[in-house]
Amino acid sequence: MVPGAPITDQQVRLYMDLRRHHPQRVAAAKAGVSERTARRIEDDPRLPSHKRAEPRTWRTRDDPLAEVWDAVVAPLLAATPGLRPVTILDELSRRDPDTDWRGQRRTLERRIRAWKAEHGPAKEVIFRQNHPPGGMGLSDFTDVATLGVTLGGQPLPHRLYHFALAYSGWEHAEPVLGGESFVALAHGLQSALWALGGAPAEHRTDSLSAAFRNLDQDARQDITRRYDALCAHYGMRASRNNRGVAHENGAIEGRHGHLKQAIDQALLLRGSRDFADLAAYRRFLDDIVGRRNAHRRDLLRLEAAALRRLPARKTTDYDEATVVVTSSSGFILRKVFYTVPSRLIGHRLRLRIHDDRLECFLGASPVLTLPRARAASRGPHAHVVDYRHVIHSLRAKPQAFLNLVYRDQLFPHPAYRRAWEAIIDALDARLACRTMVGLLALAHDAACEAGLGAALDEALDRGVLPDLAEMRRRFQPSTAEAPVVTVHMPAADSYDILLASGERP
After folding, report:
1. Which of 119-133, 194-208, 245-259, 391-405 has maximum average pLDDT?
2. What's the domain count of the chain?
3. Which residue range is the domain that position 160 belongs to?
4. Quick check: 327 and 344 in contact, CB under 8 A?
5. What tens digit of pLDDT does each residue of 363-385 get?
6. How far is the C-alpha of 369 from the C-alpha of 352, rounded, in Å?
7. Strand 357-362's sheet: what is its strand order?
8. 84 three-class SS
């Protein structure tokens, strides 16, 4: 027997069989154990596996918490079960600073864990659910800042709306540029249902606390009514989990991490986290979700038969507002200034406010669509400016450009901003304003925004200021004069000659 190696059940059985016919020393040698071990076997013939199954009833060293457990620790836990072990350790150090309690942290943690198992308060029980096909769909929002997605090199602050069926796991995801609003929920849910081709019997979401933030009681009740009406439009029963109890939405909460991991891995394979525009990013997400749903085809086939039929059309998935276009050729909505064509000054516009855009109506007629922006809750107003809306007036008042509130938002391309910085540093302010406004007017009139921007970058890279006259010659359409065409009318009696010759006109 190797010194230090534990004896096995087989050795004990072999020793007991050999002991019937051999002395102790011989039986021990044949079984591969020492004489001392043989004596212990005869004193207690139980197998080693049976001995190990019995709990140990003795301590291998003195209890370091013996003096303080019943006097200090147990009463603290009984009075305040939520105390952390490190807090109790600090309290012990405060009461007895001469003792180094830091080395007893693991021991204290084990003792507290055992005490809570015997004497601690009851814990919340999670009741696992069986979800029938077509029974429930769930919606939630998840933050994806860690993915580091950019559009055109600029960070894209957004989150994902995520929908899933509890039975089959079929899911839908789309980017949300704003917060967890009812508009984002309504748009995402309806997109998911129409992509699915049916509706479950119940739809569950969180408590909508983010959508209720900073709203008065009437506004909160309005959102609640709108959510109930949205679900009723699709024949679904509306439900919400209790505030702060995420596991009630667990059928989708657990899928957030898997979806974000799949997106992150796809971005790594793609080799870049930058997209040309939001539409390209949407297509990327749709491809990922579509491949994930392909693995759920069989379960979805079973669930599809239990889904409710969709109504004839979608319902409202936007907020509404009415604004008046001011003399600045724009309007302010939720601390954001939007420019519109100046012909709309003085008119009242009806807005449909989506998550990513504003649809503007003059009466019942759609007039334009604007990208939606959001201003910080504390800070200056934001601006959504299209230089085409104001360039005709700015051309008549070029000096207004110098201190224009939204001047930096007028530039349609970084090259124009770069050109302005070079021009204002080198020229008189009045001349600089006329030059910059002239360049913007040229980009508008000649529809050469991209080409002119490239020309500006080229000139600046050569260390040359942009020449407005040269740019006009290069990009403005030629205005060659049309040739003069002279028409000579024949005399009336010339037709008589034709009649005399017997020919008919």
Report:
1. 391-405
2. 5
3. 136-304
4. no
5. 989 999 999 988 877 778 889 99
6. 10
7. 319-324, 348-353, 357-362, 365-371
8. coil
